[in-house]
Amino acid sequence: MKLWWRFRGKSSLWSEYLHGRYCRNLHPTIVPYNRNHSSVWHRLCRIRDVAEPFIFWTLGEGSVSFWHDNWFGEKPLAQLVHRDTYTMESVHYYWHEGEWNVPRILRIIPMPFAQIICQIPIAAGQGDIIVWTESSTGDFSTKSAWEAIRQASPRRQLLADVWHRSLRPTISVFLWRLFQDRIPVDARMQQKGFSFPSKCQCCEAEETVSHLFIESAAVQGVWQHFAAILGSAFVIRGASPICTDLDEHTVEGRFTSGCRNGFHISPTSSPSPSIVRWLAPSPSWFKLNTDGSSLGNPGLAGAAGIIRDSAGHVHLAYQFALGTGTSVLAELTAVWRGMELALTHGLAPLVVEVDATTVISLLQSRASGNWEVQHMIMRIICLQQLLVADVQHVFREANGAADHLAKEAASLQLTRVLHHDDITGILRGIICLDRQGVPHLRRG
After folding, report:
1. Where in the numbering of this chain does the RNase H type-1 domain appear (predicted)?
2. Domains, the chain, with CATH or none
């Protein structure tokens, strides 16, 4: 899978050579395999159907395939829109002066898909970015590839305790072999076909795993000796008595490991409280306060915001239900939706206040963060330029109106736009307090 990732990224002379030799005017995913091709190309063809579904493209210059590359979302358009033939145009063929060419798109794409396409931002001036969808950062890793394709078994707490870092590797390996019945006792060797008598070295009984580690009088004396030291009783329960109190002893092992390495307890100090308040924007400017809420992260999510002028008067507020989502997705959606509404209603220039430092970092660095929100980050950056918007951080205590709206949107799954006369109850009270400059106490 790593080989396919390197080939698709075209980041080396090797990948450029393979594209030129085998693909030519065809997309790599539809090139037929020929026995005369090289062994490397044979390996790529065998893995492409497995690896390609995990590749996504963030649009830049639009040189990726319109039909066969997955820049749309869940799947490539060729798997969603059924046609007799699929042409090999690049995505930028359907652009005009840096925007989507809607009439050209509608000639070949149904309206529901065309509407989604027109919402995808175009980041002109930079290359298309290949994204590995199984990684939170979008970068390929062998671990994420293995996790994506392996048949995972249910997690067993016993094995998690056996391989805990508080135990030495030699002990963990021995315990794993013991639980998997891989200890070469006499009875086990007889099962493998070796012909010799089985006799315990401490008594006359047959040498089996259960006898050697649990049932014999000699080993029970050992277990009882150490059980007394650890302050627990040695009790045989069920078919796996050797596992008795394993969790308790693992915890003790973790504590012993901490004592061996030394604990460091730093003195605590109470942070000094500070006063924060909502500040009105400068004259002729508008302020957008946004917030996102996810009840569980991920869980039921909602995005919301409120736009006010320099006198503190509300021009509009909004709430969007997002279904199940993360807090980062909710926060970014709140900023994006608010800026779109500000652009539609001509509320510019704009100051945007967000209480999530993660969102501020993503927007300032233009980092990809989680690949799933990359499109939204690009939308926000484009809207920033159109609105002359300044995105700033604000403390949560001074973002009460947006916080109230977001929690309500998440819990009740509301989607609506509110104007001044629609605002009542607690929200109206929060807005009045903000307009009067009432301070809030912040600890830390």
Report:
1. 282-415
2. 2-149 (no CATH), 157-244 (no CATH), 275-443 (3.30.420.10)
